Amino acid sequence: MARRGGYAKGIAKREEILSTALDVIARHGYRGASVKEIADAVGLSQAGLLHHFGSKEDLFVEVLRKRDEHDTAVALTAFAERGITGALDAFVGVMRANADVPGLVLLYSALAVEAADPDHAAHAYFRDRREIFRAALAGGIRQMQDDGALDAHLDPDTLATAIHALADGLQVHMLIEPGLDMAGVIQHVVGALRPEPRHDEGGRA
């Protein structure tokens, strides 16, 4: 029983660390977020904090996973309520919210580049995340094509890859151009892919 209680406390502490790290990184950015500041905020030594994760890099990967959990929950709720349209709106909402947390955007963008090295702690996270995201987005695109809401000639997998790459690229641009409307760009691109309404001979849609 004692071991089970200790395990539960360990999980709770880990969640507290991740929530605190999210806040610290959002405020101070990837470069400015120190292990010491996060450790102090949760009442641990630096060694005690890293005991829960292994390394600073592993901690940052888990911070991104924590953020993904929230974003995924929002998207799933929107999908359940309004189908793929709701899920796309949730995606746009995530991009809009990201503009308010440049520290987390910098963390994501910096690790995405570093994770190109197969030996990097974040490599598997980004590889798996992209596969899951592209598959989900491609499925949504197919549904929109079946519903007549998207051009049927577009390849879903290619388009999903392009939209994902656009979202990642926009986050890098936003770090250089803070006023960039990332959500607006995504909305414009998706809107441009929708088929033009057909008109009958009398000019009616």
Automatic annotation (TrEMBL):
<keyword id="KW-0678">Repressor</keyword>
<dbReference type="InterPro" id="IPR001647">
    <property type="entry name" value="HTH_TetR"/>
</dbReference>
<protein>
    <submittedName>
        <fullName>TetR/AcrR family transcriptional regulator</fullName>
    </submittedName>
</protein>
<dbReference type="InterPro" id="IPR009057">
    <property type="entry name" value="Homeodomain-like_sf"/>
</dbReference>
<dbReference type="Pfam" id="PF00440">
    <property type="entry name" value="TetR_N"/>
</dbReference>
<keyword id="KW-0804">Transcription</keyword>
<feature type="domain" description="HTH tetR-type">
    <location>
        <begin position="11"/>
        <end position="71"/>
    </location>
</feature>
<keyword id="KW-0805">Transcription regulation</keyword>
<dbReference type="InterPro" id="IPR036271">
    <property type="entry name" value="Tet_transcr_reg_TetR-rel_C_sf"/>
</dbReference>
<dbReference type="Pfam" id="PF13977">
    <property type="entry name" value="TetR_C_6"/>
</dbReference>
<keyword id="KW-0238">DNA-binding</keyword>
<dbReference type="InterPro" id="IPR039538">
    <property type="entry name" value="BetI_C"/>
</dbReference>
<feature type="DNA-binding region" description="H-T-H motif">
    <location>
        <begin position="34"/>
        <end position="53"/>
    </location>
</feature>
